[in-house]
UniProtKB/TrEMBL annotation, chains A, B:
Taxonomic path: Bacteria, Bacillati, Actinomycetota, Actinomycetes, Micrococcales
Record's protein name: AcrR family transcriptional regulator
GO MF, one annotated term: DNA-binding transcription factor activity
InterPro entries in the record: Homeodomain-like_sf, HTH-type_TetR-like_transc_reg, HTH_TetR, KstR2_TetR_C, Tet_transcr_reg_TetR-rel_C_sf
The keyword Transcription is assigned to this record: yes
PANTHER family the UniProt entry points to: HTH-TYPE TRANSCRIPTIONAL REGULATOR BETI, HTH-TYPE TRANSCRIPTIONAL REGULATOR RUTR
Domain HTH tetR-type residues, every copy: 13-73
Keywords from the named record: DNA-binding, Transcription, Transcription regulation
Length: 200, 200
């Protein structure tokens, strides 16, 4: 369900998932630190006391939201295509799936990428994000050693630039527009692996 | 002068440029909206009334800071290499220079890239940034029509992904480290134009 639809409803009678969608939207607009339970209640169209019926604290909402983003990313690495076969094919699989999760769970991944690390919940999430990034970096190194990726760029730079390209998608991608998630993934993979120069 | 050096000084006797460097650092850490003249004075180690001796308002500091970022970017497009020769060479020149400005004026460009557009000063800056982006997008289209850039990716997607890659540099690049600005520009250009796959 697109978050816009839910946000506009603005009535009581939510299940936890709807509360979560609205909360993530509010966190992304105001910043997590600047969002109070009062602001959340206002956006949900319920009283400040009624919000505690749905969720014990702001931190619980953050935890649930980050779990949705990180769980999606971590599940990618557990699929057989992520650990069997040639390293460049595994890397391509992981990058495509990362883009798919990012687009499918856009507000959740946006929240994850904007974390400052001010609380334990945020620090734990950043730790898990780093662990994911390290596994992708290991795949890049493996593809390099295998000889399928170019050797003249430091693998750390490659990792930074690849994640920079992919993570920046949250800043501009509009789900439901003319660019499908599948096509977006194709374009990113083509540009990253084959480059923009026309083949001779 | 690196902003760290200036920040640590924490004494009165600043010129406007030093005040500006510290202000930009504070804006980037706390967010422009959340930064009061009181917080700025505290970071400068001077009284709240003394700060007005250096600068009339927070908005003036923002304006000066954004001018430094935008002026650097806009000057790129006025150099002969940006408008003479083959479009792909012009594009490469502009992207290399953009990376150079970004690295050289890192905190200023970071501030520009994080703007929310809540005030007229911010909106004017975002307007100038969009004008710059449009001119680069036009170069991408020209290189595509010239036949030097691949035609199978929508030029709007190419523009978004290229800027995503380059702008993300502000999130991780550490000036003075082992990766020189020149080498960084080489790596970005190689990856963007030739891709990561090893040549057969």
């Amino acid at each position: 369900m697109p978050s816009e639809t839910v946000t506009k409803r603005g009535r009581p009678g939510y299940d936890q998932q709807s509360v979560l969608l609205i909360a993530v939207d509010v966190f992304n607009r105001h910043g997590y630190d600047a969002t109070s339970m009062g602001i959340l209640a206002e956006n949900l169209g319920i009283s400040k006391s009624a919000i505690y019926h749905h969720v014990p604290s702001k931190g619980d909402l953050l935890k649930l939201a980050l779990e949705h983003a990180l769980g999606g990313l971590e599940a990618i690495l557990e699929q057989p295509e992520a650990f069997t076969g040639a390293a460049d094919a595994r890397l391509e699989f992981v990058l495509r799936q990362t883009i798919a999760v990012l687009v499918d769970r856009l507000p959740f991944v946006t929240l994850l990428l904007r974390l400052r690390g001010n609380t334990d919940i945020e620090r734990d999430a950043l730790e898990r994000r780093r662990a994911f990034d390290h596994k992708v970096a290991a795949l890049i190194s493996a593809a390099r050693e295998e000889g399928t990726l170019r050797q003249d760029i430091d693998p750390r730079t490659v990792t930074r630039l690849l994640f920079g390209t992919i993570n920046s998608i949250v800043e501009w991608y509009k789900p439901g527009g003319s660019l499908s998630p599948q096509r977006l993934a194709d374009d990113v993979i083509t540009m990253a692996f084959d480059g923009l120069h026309a083949s001779a």
